[in-house]
Amino acid sequence: MSLTFKFCNPDTAKCVNMQVSQGQKHPKGRRYSKEFKIECLAIYFAGPKVYKKYLMSKYSLPSPNTLLKEIRAVKIGPGLDNPEFFILLKKKVDSFQPQSKYCTLCFDEMSIKANLFYERNQDFIVGLAMGDTGEKIFKPTLTASVFMIRGIYSKWKQPIAYFLCHTSCPANLLHTLLTEAVQKLKNVGLNICAVACDMGSNNIKLSNILNISPDNTGFYLENQYLFFIFDVPHIAKALRNMLLTYDFYVNGKKISWQFIKDFYELDKTFPVKAAHKLTDSHIYPTSFQKMKVKLATQVFSYSVYVGMTFFIRFGSLPAEATETAEFVNRVDKLFDILNSSQTYGSKKYNAAFKADSFQLEFLMDCLTFFKKLEVRDKNNRNVTKKIKFIKSLLISINSIIQLFYHLRENAGFDYILTRRLNQDCLENHFGKIRSENGNCINPTAIQFHRTFRRMQCVNLLNSGTENCEADSDQMLLRLSDCQQDFVPQDTDIVPEQKYLLRTIDYSKNEMLQKNFIRYVCGYLLNKALKVHYCDICNKYSKDHDELDDTSFYCFLKAYKNKNEDTFGNLKMPNDKFVDLICKIEDIFQENFETFATKSNICHLLLDISNHLRFSHPCINFPKEFVIRLYLRVRIYYTLKTINGNFRNINKNKLIIWRNL
Fold it and tell me: How many helices (DSSP H) and strands (DSSP E) are in the chain?
């Protein structure tokens, strides 16, 4: 053992001596030095599976639980003065590939409850706020600001520090903390390329201190050039909230929330809605609902644009609503580009940002559009200068474009998933802190401190290989359920003649509804072809190839590329199949409320629908599968709409028919 120090390097000698001294002991009786455990941490970070499944079976090494205890022993408090944490962080960063070291620095704050707590082990009081100079002051903490880093190329994130303030962290102090954080992360070996934050007043002041503008979106800190990005989801939320209060004008044309409201009120009267996700929470949001980004982005969607354009075409909405519909479509595409999460998206604009010609042309057009945008109040006064989201959006667009060119030139990036440039990771972190304390909206300072330290240690040990797949909720309707053999159960079926079958006349008044039904029919046939495929059924699914008043909605919904048919890849069945689904829809509306309280509701509806006459050129066409699938989808979306209304003012009232 002594000769190893003479003929081997010190690290190898320590490792050999540790194996000799600990190898013969029982695994629970082994003791390792702190230096050796730190070295094992570096190995674990480089390859967790290799460490656990191979190295631990061959050599005497500390278990992952022992390493976790070592991390938990690291003292982590408010601020950036946590040297042991940054030593561990450097160990992990050293195992990264070069592209994985490029990241963004996000910062945000959450409200906490005023509370002081004496930490006996570390002998200090938790809950006193930090003053403008960074020193503690004798005031209670009401806000916790958190700094978090997030990989641009690789899927990793890590909270690095938190700061307790009496109110929002002042812009001058935020600038000082930002400078210190960049310096420490640079020493760790990370390449900070951008900072991301929301449009809080202190963050706006910080951008002014850094001389950030639409024409100057970058700044230097510690000899490192960073881009300033305002969180795009927050911008979308602010845009919706401003449109609720004000009217927008571009080149004298009006963009108004009233047109969206009129569309919603008209759309919800139809059995199959053009924008089925919209509820009263989207159109008439409460103060709390105005804070939800999801409700804002679902309003600015392609479905709303298609629905509004469709109603304008048939005169249900005035022609003046065209500019509002186009604005909805523009914001939808812009949000897709600035919040992409897939390399190849399902739509043209929601794929990764690669600075393709169509992406750059659209972003340049949006820059011109929002520079011309005027905001006027109800008295027609111009209040554009008071609106923050316009300047913030222009800054973010230019920052993302320039950041991509910077990464392509210096790091060889071929694309950017722009969702990794927002601060969703920080919002999720705040949500976990709240849930760790019994779903407490405003935890105390000591609760925040303990939860932050525990989550920081766990995140540091997490290599990114475990739990890397996002959980996906199971839908109520699954294709496998529809493919199972249907076994009817004993139920009290009321005589058939009780349930009325109306003869539907889709001439003029119900032309809008037939458009929606035809679109759903295409979905049903697409699923049917997966159950039974043949040339006859495939040809039948595209039997309608003419653009008329009954297929205009499908024409708008289709994503058409060059040299494609009028309806793109959509299935377009003939009128006989559409009439069948219309009759089933009529059965559903007539009998749903009666059957809703019974067991086997789908079976009861299916029993009536099976009596409908329908002929198909293929004898193997799965008619019963199609009917059952439609009924299940119809039940699912009906209940989803009802549940959406529980979040509204009349949350205890079961509203069914006016929202079908």
Answer: 26, 13
> CB-based burial of residue 618 (10 Å sphere; 0-12 exposed, 13-18 middle, 19+ buried)?
middle
Q: How many CB atoms lie within 10 A of CB 32?
A: 19
Q: Which of 73, 71, 61, 5 is nearest to 32 (CA)?
A: 61
Backbone angles phi, psi at 239, to 5 degrees: -60, -45
CB-CB contact of 636 with 476 (8 Å): yes
Burial of 14 (0-12, 13-18, 19+ CB in 10 A): middle
Radius of gyration of the chain, Cα coordinates, nearest whole angstrom: 30
For the chain, residues with pLDDT lower than 70 are: 45-46, 71-74, 120-123, 437-439, 456-510, 560-565, 644-660
DSSP element (H, E) containing 226: strand 224-230
Do residues 568 and 560 make contact, with C-beta atoms less than 8 angstroms apart? yes
Angstrom distance (rounded) from CA 477 to CA 483? 11
Instruction: Give domain limits for the chain.
Output: 2-72, 83-231+423-461, 234-411, 479-659
Residue 643's SS3 state is: helix
- 79-93 tens-digit pLDDT: 888 888 888 888 888
261-299 CB burial, b ≥16 within 10 A, e <16:
ebbbebbbebbbbbbbbbbbbbbebeeebeeebebbbbb
pTM equals: 0.75
For residue 19, the one-letter residue type is: Q
pLDDT tens by residue, 205-252 = 999 999 999 999 999 988 889 999 999 999 999 999 999 999 999 988
Residue given tokens 């190893």 in the structure block: 4
Q: Please tell me the distance from the alpha carbon of residue 340 to that of residue 417, in angstroms, as a whole number.
A: 5
d(CA 629, CA 616): 18
